[in-house]
User: Fold Probable D-serine dehydratase from Cupriavidus pauculus.
Amino acid sequence: MSSDVTADVSAFTPSLLADLQAGRPVFWANPARSAAPEIQTSVDGRAISLADVRAAQARFVRFAPLLARLFPELQDSAGRIESPLLPAPAMQQALGLPASAGALWIKADHSLPVAGSIKARGGIHEVLEFAESLALEHGLVTLDADYAVLADAPARALFGRYQVAVGSTGNLGLSIGVMASALGFRAAVHMSSDAKAWKKDRLRKRGVQVVEHTGDYAAAVAAGRREADADPYAYFVDDERSLSLMLGYSAAALHLADQLAAAGVQVDAAHPLCVYLPCGVGGAPAGIAFGLRQLYGPHVHAFFAEPTQSPCFLVEMVAPGASVYDIGLTNRTEADGLAVPQASELAAQAMRPMLGGVYTVADDTLFADLHRVRETQDLRIEPSAAAGFSGPHMLTGTDAGRAYLRQHHLDSAMPGATHLVWTTGGLFVPPEEYARFAERGAALAATQPA
Ligand SMILES: *Cc1c(COP(=O)(O)O)cnc(C)c1O
Assistant:
């Protein structure tokens, strides 16, 4: 495959390519971003809109009574899986971001219950959608029924006939595996052999079958997909091409809009919303960016954050079909949630007219920011989840970022801007492992000021 895409790499400007290959952090502005109030979006020939975002949200609401019954940690939220929106003035100061550049906020998805990462949104949504379709088809519920009955014997017998499988670097497997097995499905998670031991252990403890594959993430996905294709009672969650996943993520926008309103944060031409989203295959950030764009139109500016060695979404936007290997990168990063060589085409398709841009982050910066956000805000996040924090500087403090601000007439609006950093995972990282991350980060933060 790489031989016929190598030519596409000519779509990179020589200086961007040189920076990427040297592992220097870059900011890339999407030249195809439209400022139109509304954009017709379709993926794989299907139009998607705010109605789809609301439908995903409604599904979470229908399942809430069941989830409250299955997960003690969801009792307090009556079965809703959500995270706080936090002001972050101390972190803003630690990052050296002046008040004239706007205000820093954190969307704390690293604390999402059940899954411990942003995957609680997309991954769980897809499992629920599959369970719901089976339950409806077999007459176990209607759309307005109390779904708590799906914890009873007839539903469990039905679900137990099916296997739910997924290929994953870790966090997606955790969310799918935990939810599928809680509902009574047989669950199988295909992981690359370098996936973290604690993630495999956590799954096995819940009765999930963990299948280890040598090779990278894409290889684990391909193997899982092949195995499930051969079994009519197997349902494969396909991270690289799933609309259900993306729409599950998109529902985050509706809850966030309520939180922003409750916090008195305005979003309009004088108060742009700049959102910084860690990106792996692109499904999670694309879903959220899509949902926000439906609500706020061109006043939301979504930026995806990728490791310097794994900028697969940037590569896909510039040279469709190419992988990070095609430009000579290694895909080696400590940010295991973002270590993806090839982006989701579906996500790229959806994002082409609405993505602000993509920037890359060195691993050392991830660790330094992981340390800073604990020091300043007392938040414990994993390395992948720190990728958003360099966004405000990349946008407001680099030549390429400033060019974006000028091009979109944002210069004078920046004092009123909201910089929303999405922290995407970390709740279940074992304390010993977190201590190692933090120690490495503290040493780096001491030597390299933000
Ligand atoms: C999966 C993941 C992401 C990105 O999601 P994609 O859909 O792969 O782009 C970001 N952060 C963390 C911690 C993740 O696990």
